[in-house]
Amino acid sequence: MDITAPRFTNEDAAREHLEALRWPDGPFCPHCGSFSAKRLPPQRGRKTKAHPEGALRKGVVQCNDCREQFTVTVGTLFESSKVPLHKWVLATFLLCSSKRGMSGHQLARMLGVTQKTAWFMSHRIRESMRPAEGEPPLGGEGKTVEADETFIGGKEKNRHKSKRATRRLGGSWGKETVFSLVERDGKVRSTHVQSVTAANLKPILVEQIDAATTLCTDDAGQYRHMHRAFKHEIVNHSAGEYVRGTAHTNTVEGYFSIFKRGVVGTYYHMSPKHLHRYCVEFDFRYNTRKDNDFERCEQALKGITGKRLTYRRADHIGA
């Protein structure tokens, strides 16, 4: 796909593209939900030093019922942003099409914005990748879900002595834990957990997996009693067993290899405060792996609705 396409370089083309995605049946009012609206000619905004006559507002629509005015970005992650809309669309495409992610510095260079702005944008795009509420559980009758955990963080020996962490129950030295569930030939769901104990993991398993599912795990102690909730198959890694018939955890480990490439080769460090959002990013790309880059970008752009986040909340996204 050509990143010099009009919607990536022109504000009007980007707005028309977003309108086609969000309003396939015509404009609808984000204030009252009415589909009765009319387009207005370009409007002048408030007068400022930069725009003495008022900035020209294009794409303004007025609801015929509540009389409120709005544009396609109202009620979305892009609302009231000073970043041009075509840069938002391009940033979304770049993040969706980069298998191992894209750093804030690289995104800033390609968009012509500051690193701080690129970081701000990338976290909001990850928010658009978050799955919708009420998605059905993974698995089902005749299906298999693999569960495993991985640890994110640098080597403890590389830390200064004063920075070294104490070992947490079920955790690793100074590292953060990501617990993932992968349905074979299906989707993945990852969660940032404090520790890999049965008390922490079982509620996630019960909530996210259908009871009729076959669960495959390794022989770790936290999975010892999962046969009470699922048909449970175990591969004994400690004895050198990695595959026994259809029992294995190779699919989830393959997902972790992609995740780790993103950590080691692109992001280098993921703050514990924002780790859950990086999990959403890698889950989204894995779950849309059969789509092309254009389709994946469109799906992310459709996910911006109803997720307004302001800059002051940047450090508390998803908290």
Give a structural overview.
There is one protein chain. The chain is α+β, with helices and mostly antiparallel strands and 319 residues long. It folds into two domains: 6-132 and 302-316, no CATH class; 144-270, Nucleotidyltransferase, domain 5, CATH 3.30.420. The protein has helices at residues 6-9, 11-22, 85-97, 104-111, 115-128, 198-208, 250-267, 275-287, 293-302, and strands at 37-39, 43-44, 56-57, 61-63, 69-70, 144-152, 176-183, 188-193, 214-218, 231-235, 243-244, 247-248. The strands form four sheets. Strands 8-7-6-9-10 form a five-stranded mixed beta sheet, sandwiched between helices. The longest helix has 18 residues, at 250-267. The chain starts with 5 loop residues before the first helix and ends in a 17-residue tail after the last helix. Mean pLDDT is 88; it is low at 168-172 and 313-319.
Which descriptors would you attach to this protein?
319 residues, 15% strand, disordered C terminus, Nucleotidyltransferase, domain 5, alpha+beta, 2 domains
What strand line-up does the widest sheet have? 8-7-6-9-10
State the secondary-structure class. alpha+beta
**Quick one: overall form?**
elongated
**Distance linking N and C termini:** 35 Å
Q: Report the radius of gyration as a whole number of Å.
A: 23 Å
How many separate structural domains?
2
Mean of the pLDDT scores? 88
- Total count of helical runs of at least 4 residues: 9
How many beta-strand runs?
12
What are the secondary-structure elements, in order, as H or E? HHEEEEEHHHEEEHEEEEHHH
